[in-house]
Amino acid sequence: MMNISKNQDCKLSPGTVINGKWHHNSYRVVKPLGYGATGIVYLAEGNQDLVAIKISNDSLAITSEVNVLRHFSKVQGRLGPSLLDVDDWIRPNFAKAMPFYVMEYLKGIDFLTFIEKNGNEWLSVLILQLLADLERLHKHGWIFGDLKPDNLLVVGPPQRVRWLDVGGTTMNGRSIKEFTEFYDRGYWGLGSRKAEPAYDLFAVAMIMLNTQFPNRFSKKTTVGNNLPQLVTAIEAKPALRKYEKVMIRAIQGKYQTATEMRYELLHIANRKNDIRQDQTRQTIKSSNSFRKATTSKRKTNNKNQRERKFKGVLETIVIAFLLFIAYFLYIASQML
After folding, report:
1. What is the Cα–Cα distance from 222 to 4, expressed in whole angstroms?
2. Which one, of 174, 192, 205, 201, lies nearest residue 259 by Cα?
3. Domains in the chain with CATH codes
4. I need a surface site. Which of 7, 136, 202, 307 has the fewest CB within 10 A?
5. How many CA atoms lie less than 13 Å away from 49 in the CB half-sphere?
6. How many CB atoms lie within 10 A of CB 236?
């Protein structure tokens, strides 16, 4: 959970300049990007480009997060932002230096806003990407911990989900060191706060739920688990019903790996696409049948028109011939 008292020391006004004690790099604060239990992340102007800088008064937390980012850089694929700088800031009127680190600034849209603007069709696409990244993280012995939309950004094109603050990342088997209640299975009485893959997968299901409940909601009971409440919430939203089975299994901790959850979600997504393709094929087939019928009818009409026209011309010729014979006989009778 967020420790507000610690973060008070990290609050900076736009325009504040952070000067690195050791590397002598300077960063001008533009605006805050996010708040965590161990500090605050700001958008800042670096020497050459915009960067994201996290500042804290907890040197151990900063060291831990820096180690995580360095470890991420060795993992195949880009899990988190690139680490650019690590230093201390001698802040005026403060007794001790404040540690900070600088990351690549990822330009994009926050997860919930992207879904709201682009539609629920993107939900399965982004969640499948997220699960693939989590599987790589878990295989290297880490659990994200404080997984929530605030820590996810959609960049692109091509659209790709990326991670932001890694402050809650914990080694597998240890106690989760940072969490947000809505995404925490312990809060809902549905599991412990032990760092394991199932903990992150519970949060993935809650992120999906959060897309349909932007303001979130609180648990109704403080005793026992709150599974019925979450199931009711899932069933209340048409956009989530097709994923109900996967979400409930994740909430119950039935998946051992992110790959298992990803496989079942992918199966549902493919089945949905197959149905859409079948509908498209049926539409095309019906359209072709209608086109063939229309063409056949048009050909028949044209043929009938040609026959009527031919008959009309023939009748005209016969009538003209008969008139000619009658006229010839009349002339012949007058000469006699």
Report:
1. 24
2. 201
3. 4-104 (3.30.200.20), 109-276 (1.10.510.10)
4. 307
5. 9
6. 11
Tracing tokens 């049926």 back to the chain, one arrives at 282
* Contact assessment for residue 68 and residue 142, using Cβ atoms and an 8 Å cutoff: yes
Question: 111-118 vs 197-212: helix axis angle to the nearest 10?
Answer: 40
Instruction: Tokens for 89, please give them.
Output: 């800031």
Q: Quick check: 246 and 264 in contact, CB under 8 A?
A: yes
SS3 242: coil
C-beta of residue 103 within 8 angstroms of C-beta of residue 69: yes
Task: Tell me whether residue 110 is one of the annotated catalytic residues.
Answer: no
| Phi and psi at residue 11, to the nearest 5° | -75, 125
pTM greater than 0.85 (yes/no): no
- Residue linked to tokens 């692109």: 156
Mean pLDDT of the chain: 86
How many Å is the Cα radius of gyration of the chain? 36
List 146, 165, 184, 200, catalytic entry: 146
> Using one digit for the tens of pLDDT, what is the confidence trace for 199-242?
999 999 999 999 999 999 999 988 888 999 999 999 999 999 99
Q: Looking at this protein, which amino acid is placed at residue 106? A: L
Q: What is the dihedral of CA 236, 242, 248, 250, to 10 degrees?
A: -130
Burial class from Cβ neighbours inside 10 Å (0-12, 13-18, 19+) for residue 155 reads middle
CA 229 to chain centre: 25
Reported as type and span, the H/E element at residue 219 is none
CA distance 164 to 153: 7
How far is it, in rounded angstroms, from Cα 168 to Cα 201? 15
Distance CA 184, CA 216 (A): 13
pLDDT of residue 329: 61
Q: Strand order in 17-19's β-sheet?
A: 17-19, 26-35, 40-45, 50-55, 98-104, 83-89
pLDDT digits (tens, 9 = 90+) for 270-326: 875 554 554 545 555 555 655 665 566 676 667 677 777 766 667 777 666 666 666
Residue 86, strand partner residues:
101
